Amino acid sequence: MKFIKRYLTPFLILILAIFLPKMVLPYVDNLEETSYLIKKISSILFIIALTWSLIVTIKVFKKRYLTNYDISSTDNLRARKLYTQFNILERVVIFIIIILAIAFSLMLFDSVKKFGVSVFASAGIAGIIIGFAAQKAIATILAGMQIAISQPIRLDDVLVVEGEWGWVEEITLTFVVVRIWDKRRLVLPTTYFIEKPFQNWTRTTAEILGTVYLYTDYNVDFDSIRAELTRLLEASNLWNQKVNNLQVTDSKEKTVELRALMSAADSPKVWDLRVYVREGLIKFIQKNYPESLPKTRVFFTNNNEQ
């Protein structure tokens, strides 16, 4: 019922376009000039009604089709793909429809037709000039269309771009809005994601691995820390029960490096899980193995010379 209401305005415009000549012409004196003007206005109203109806149809179709896909679900890869494609292609199609509507409206007038013929005659030179002047704008629009087709990024993807970590909030033909974790917005041109490298943490799946690094003394008990990691993960509902691993990844001059690896359903959960595990492991070492905290060793020798 709601989508029918959206057709009400273009329908009323269409009715006005059909009955305007019949309502006005019988009551005017200068019939020839007024008839010409009324007919042109009626034709323009008809084009507006048709354009409006097409745009509403596109929006209604997109909304009804995408209701089958929940972008807020955990496994939302296909939903994000379709939302990205439909949002960009919708803008492209609506832009083309509006341009055609304006062109058809202008072509109703003979003076515009003559002007159009003269412009068409010099279109080659004008096209070259416009092409050089607007090459960046054209490249940006083409990049937006390329993103819709190849999809290096999708709506709600988790990115690390320009040193910032956030989610793709909006994709248009000309720019992309990334919602940073602290509620800031990073706005980038679409060409950025075609020309420059960036990290996409959810390119193939929303699942993601998290790491926690600890630095301890050489006498630490690795098995006890490994058991504590398992206990912490099993006690948390953030863990998706897929990856649980503790490894000694490096041995330095004064410390050893431990890497705890864990998995979660999406990036916000894995961030909270990492913070929780890091705090838990540090408390465990402080309480049970305080002697295994990193140390700086200094040796004193007593050389008594006679």
Structure description:
The chain is α+β, with helices and mostly antiparallel strands. Among the domains are: 105-204, SH3 type barrels; 208-292, Alpha-Beta Plaits. The protein has helices at residues 2-5, 8-24, 31-66, 77-106, 110-121, 123-133, 135-150, 192-195, 222-234, 267-288, and strands spanning 158-161, 164-171, 175-180, 185-189, 199-200, 208-216, 239-251, 256-264. Strands 4-3-2-1-5 form a 5-stranded antiparallel beta sheet. Strand 3 and strand 4 (185-189) form a beta hairpin. Helix 2 packs antiparallel against helix 3, helix 3 (31-66) packs antiparallel against helix 4 and helix 9 crosses helix 10. The longest helix has 36 residues, at 31-66. It is elongated and about 120 Å long. It starts with a helix and ends in an 18-residue tail after the last helix. The mean pLDDT is 80.
**Rounded to an integer, what's the Rg over CA atoms?**
32 Å
Can you tell me the CATH topology of the domain at 105-204?
A: SH3 type barrels
Average residue-wise pLDDT: 80
Beta-strand residue percentage: 15-25%
Order of adjacent strands in the largest pleated sheet: 4-3-2-1-5
Indicate the overall shape: elongated
Report the helical percentage.
40-55%
Q: Give the biggest beta sheet.
A: 5 strands, antiparallel
Task: Compute the number of helices.
Answer: 10
Instruction: Assign the CATH class of the domain at 105-204.
Output: Mainly Beta
Main structural class: alpha+beta
Distance between the termini: 106 Å
Number of strands: 8
The low-confidence runs, each spanning 5 or more residues with pLDDT under 50, are none
- In sequence order, what are the helices and strands, one letter per element? HHHHHHHEEEEHEEHEEH
